[in-house]
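Renewal narrative, Specific Aim 1. Our central claim is that a sequence can be written position by position from structural information alone. The example that follows is taken directly from our test logs and has not been curated for this report. It begins with the structure tokens describing the chain, in the order in which they were read.
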């Protein structure tokens, strides 16, 4: 919604960002001149999404070979992404190379001029970047802040408010209001804040905080608090920072033109993220990939942090990108750089706890979440995350206690949430409490009758217990209708059909599921059972042997070995050999079975 068709093609600066493959290919012919330790460190840091270390290492590698154009470019781009001031001399060095004067270098030099207060030079550098589609999109913001810094407030406001037909008009209007406020024109700022609030299709953090601060400055404290409270109540994540945001209600988040420029770059990164999420795999073939969008977004956030190193919103977005790319450690370091005194610190702490839960920092994650729960006793989000953390550690008794607290809080707040019931059902299931598991799943289905996850969980659990198989089949057939390509659901339905004696349909479903998920021990066990019951004993034993080799959960391993015992008792020599073979120890932290996450 935020982009027109012209921006679906690859942005100029994304195409110009040098790739690691190009560095590596070039370096093979000049390896004697390269600081190999620094270069390898840069490669590893880039692979891990650590732009700070990548920038330092590429700069060290480039220092050893100043004629290596690709190393210089990589050192430059990574320094930009890291928000490192060293990007400035690198921009000047790159500009002297053939084709080195790029959109990126123009923006870097413009930002540096802005930081030095040379606004005429900043405007000139920004003008050089105007040909790029994305830079062109935010160019009105960059030039408007340059104009404001040169005391041309009216021209800056008029330039932004006279733009028509752009989906960014609400954001242009917000910045026009900020320019008026920074220029000490509160009446004009109030008019523009009001106009922006009418145009904005929902709450915007920058607008809401700025408008609330304006109300406060006008002596309208009640309106200020109500406005901020409305945004906080609408966003569970921001609700964690509710107290801090209210405490900072009188503070304008933008007080200098440099901070205004930084916010413009954060907006650009946001737009790129939206474009990436809206891009389908089909139209992505001729346009930029998700990775290119992420790289471009990180460049914009690097610009923002170079102008305002304390901008928490930039670091939060950067950490989100790093998480999406699988760089959990880099995301963790990014979040740790957000000051504990920042109003958004509780949001950063929550995000950090989620990252810790996904890595090897489980104790730290639990401690952070316990603290957030204590500090926000009326907030469901941290309580639910704490329960999930206990579940991730397979501490099911504590998980159940915490899920119960979360459910009671949700009920007290009149919030019906099928997923919370589902999660509590998983905890009950792991504690072998079938009556409560079944009750929660049925209650969840009453809220979300077309949710395949619930239909599969309940249907399969009933099939495991041979409880009302026709009803289990009905639930699972409905799940297949809703999600026909899900291998777990197909396996569940196949198993129900086998248990009902329909080996033909059951075997076909199980074979298809095994083709989709060949490394699932549960699916292989079921298929082996189907083969055995169909008289294909050798194939059945082979399938059980495969299932054992996939390190099944203890419950599933017991079923597989019981099946092999039956086969051995029936005289099957292969089954007897398998049972007498040394048993492998299942690794720690193994995942759960497919039906019960």
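The sequence written for that structure reads:
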């Amino acid at each position: 919604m935020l982009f027109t068709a012209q921006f679906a093609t690859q942005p100029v600066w994304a195409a110009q960002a040098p790739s690691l493959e190009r560095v590596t290919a070039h370096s093979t012919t000049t390896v004697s001149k390269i600081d190999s330790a620094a270069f390898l460190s840069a490669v590893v840091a880039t692979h891990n999404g650590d732009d700070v270390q990548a920038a330092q290492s590429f700069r060290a590698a480039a220092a050893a070979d100043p004629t290596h154009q690709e190393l210089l470019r990589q050192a430059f781009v990574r320094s930009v992404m890291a928000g490192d001031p060293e990007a400035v001399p690198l921009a000047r060095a790159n500009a002297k190379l053939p084709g080195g004067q790029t959109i990126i270098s123009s923006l870097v030099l413009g930002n540096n001029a802005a930081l030095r207060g040379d606004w005429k030079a900043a405007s000139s550098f920004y003008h050089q970047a105007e040909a790029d589609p994305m830079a062109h999109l935010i160019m009105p913001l960059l030039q408007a802040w340059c104009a404001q810094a040169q005391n041309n407030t009216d021209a800056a406001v008029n330039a932004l408010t006279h733009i028509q037909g752009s989906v960014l008009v609400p954001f242009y209007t917000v910045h026009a209001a900020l320019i008026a406020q920074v220029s000490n024109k509160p009446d004009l700022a109030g008019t523009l804040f009001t106009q922006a609030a009418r145009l904005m299709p929902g709450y915007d953090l920058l607008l809401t905080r700025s408008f609330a601060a304006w109300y406060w400055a006008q002596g309208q404290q009640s309106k200020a608090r109500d406005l901020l409270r409305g945004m906080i109540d609408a966003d569970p994540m921001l609700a964690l920072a509710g107290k801090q945001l209210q405490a900072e209600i009188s503070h304008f988040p933008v007080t200098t033109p440099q901070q205004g420029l930084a916010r413009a770059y954060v907006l650009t990164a946001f737009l790129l993220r939206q474009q990436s999420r809206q891009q389908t795999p089909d139209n992505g073939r001729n346009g930029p990939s998700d990775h290119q969008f992420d790289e471009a977004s990180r460049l914009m956030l690097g610009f923002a942090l170079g102008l305002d190193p304390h901008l928490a919103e930039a670091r939060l977005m950067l950490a989100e990108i790093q998480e999406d790319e699988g760089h959990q450690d880099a995301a963790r370091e990014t979040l740790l750089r957000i000051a504990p005194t920042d109003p958004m610190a509780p949001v950063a702490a929550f995000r950090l706890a989620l990252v810790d839960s996904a890595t090897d920092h489980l104790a730290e994650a639990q401690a952070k979440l316990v603290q957030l729960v204590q500090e926000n006793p009326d907030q469901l989000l941290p309580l639910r995350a704490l329960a999930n953390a206990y579940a991730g550690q397979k501490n099911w008794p504590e998980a159940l206690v915490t899920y119960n607290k979360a459910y009671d809080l949700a009920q007290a707040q009149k919030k019906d949430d099928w997923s919370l019931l589902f999660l509590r059902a998983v905890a009950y299931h792991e504690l072998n409490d079938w009556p409560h598991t079944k009750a929660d799943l049925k209650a969840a289905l009453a809220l979300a009758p077309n949710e395949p996850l619930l239909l599969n969980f309940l249907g399969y659990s009933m099939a495991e217990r041979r409880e009302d198989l026709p009803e289990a089949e009905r639930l699972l057939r409905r799940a297949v209708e809703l999600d026909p390509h899900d291998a777990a659901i197909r396996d569940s339905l196949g198993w129900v059909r086998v248990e009902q004696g329909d080996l033909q349909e059951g075997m076909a479903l199980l074979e298809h599921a095994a083709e989709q998920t060949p490394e699932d021990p549960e699916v292989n066990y079921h298929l082996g059972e189907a083969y055995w019951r169909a008289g294909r004993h050798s194939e059945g034993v082979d399938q059980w042997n495969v299932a054992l080799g996939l390190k099944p959960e203890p419950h599933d391993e017991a079923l597989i070995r019981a099946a092999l015992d039956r086969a051995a008792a029936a005289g099957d020599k292969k089954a007897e050999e398998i049972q007498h073979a040394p048993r492998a120890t299942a690794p720690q932290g193994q995942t759960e079975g497919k039906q019960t996450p």
